[in-house]
Structure prediction request, 539 residues.
Amino acid sequence: MVKSVPAWLRILSVVFVALTALILLAPLIVVVGVSVSESQFIAFPPNGLSLRWYSQVLSSNAYLGAGWISIQIALMVTGFATLIGGAAAIAIHRRQLPFSDVLATVFLSPLVLPTIIYAIGMLMFWSSAFGPVSPVTLALSHTIIALPYVVRTTLAVLAESNPYLEEAARTMGANRLQRLWFVVVPQCIPGLAAGAFFAFNISFDEAVLSLFLRGPTLTTLPVQIYGQLEFSPDPSVAAVSTIMIALTIVLIFVIDRMLGLTKFASA
Amino acid sequence: MNDRMENLLLALPGLLLLVLAFFLPIGQMLVLSVTGPEGPLAPFVRFLSDPYYLGILWRTVRLSLLITLICGAIGFPLAYIMTKVGPRLRLWLVVMVILPLMTSVVVRTFGWMVLLSRSGLIPEMLRDMGLVGRNFALMQTETAIVIGMVQVLLPFMALSILGVLTRIDGRLEEAARTMGCSFLQTIRTVVLPLALPGIVAGSLLCFTLSASAFITPNLLGGTRIQVLAASIYKSVTATPDWPFAAAQAVILFAGIALVLVPYIKMTGARNG
Prediction:
């Protein structure tokens, strides 16, 4: 008979998981706590309870402007990355192009290069070729780093798809476009959706590229928060941060409903 | 139109984007780093002959190794426990790992700034427990950077290892136990070797990301305790010195490659 896990080890693992949860979640809990504080200064545990910092954020042009830019760029990135990455994943999956493996590596390569190195390269390149950076610069560079995620999630879904469906559609007389649109794309949807959520999340939270490629009128929410933290943080930073955390929770909930989070995490 | 044409058309937008907005800028930066106005390789000579910058380089390597080690020490047991619990609890553990992962680094670092500040919860607690003196401070120390970075990078390590662990055949462990291995022996002789690819992948990821991080180190370590990436950021923003920034970026990348290549080779050889 197999001996079970010793009791001391079970207790140890419960303690271990609790401590790890504390390390992982403490900064988020603290941020939420500070955001509802009444006090003028950043304090945790919070003194009193008020939503004054939220109303201050919602009437601050700096935050609202930055938030609006962040949303616009994130939506652009989601569109670009999902379209371009999804199409590329279909081509890579079919393995009919020469160098299919190289192609996959090329599309995943932005994952390997540290973002800061890419950020400098992009800043120098854009300034020397086109002049000052614009929202398009930022959207393009965010698309580059979001692309591997879309390619990966779509490839994972395609790997489990039925290869004979497309063949069947061909025999039944569907042309190329019809096969692509009515057979292949619907099979990709879960992967495309997951990739789209990732792309939105990456772009919305990204701070390194956004810091290097910022301009007087091009400040995203994370850059705005970073600037506040460097100089004079007050609880309104916590309120904005809490809104960002809430958005992340919504995204995770949607991903879990659509795809199953556990399967997704160990993919 | 044939099949190959169709696939080429599908991949083309992505390829064009990657070539024009990824490979070209990086190539141009590489060229700029060796052909600065001060003469070829001048920025490299400046970096490598200045004790100040060498100190920054050494701190970056030292902290990144420490952070990777701590992430591995926490990440492996965490991932292992995640494979052993029931589906409901596992979902909660995955949420616990993914929620911080998907939250902006800026936001998480802010949380640590509050916790670690002079009047923050953690120094207060340590003072109350009498473990440290009255003047004890955590902010603007290397310890603060390590704490913050471990929280930022732990999810990457845990998920990398989890991906490999879920694919291990559970019967192998049972077999080891029936053959008389204790629990810890099973972990050491069966689970750990099989999980090695995940541990390696997670370590590479953690090392690369921590060596190139500057937001958390800047905010928690302050301007006095600089790491390489923070120095790059300063070269770009404070005193626009692009060749020097490019040279430091190349050094960062070369340094990462220097650590990664033997690491991959070593573990690759051991796995056959």
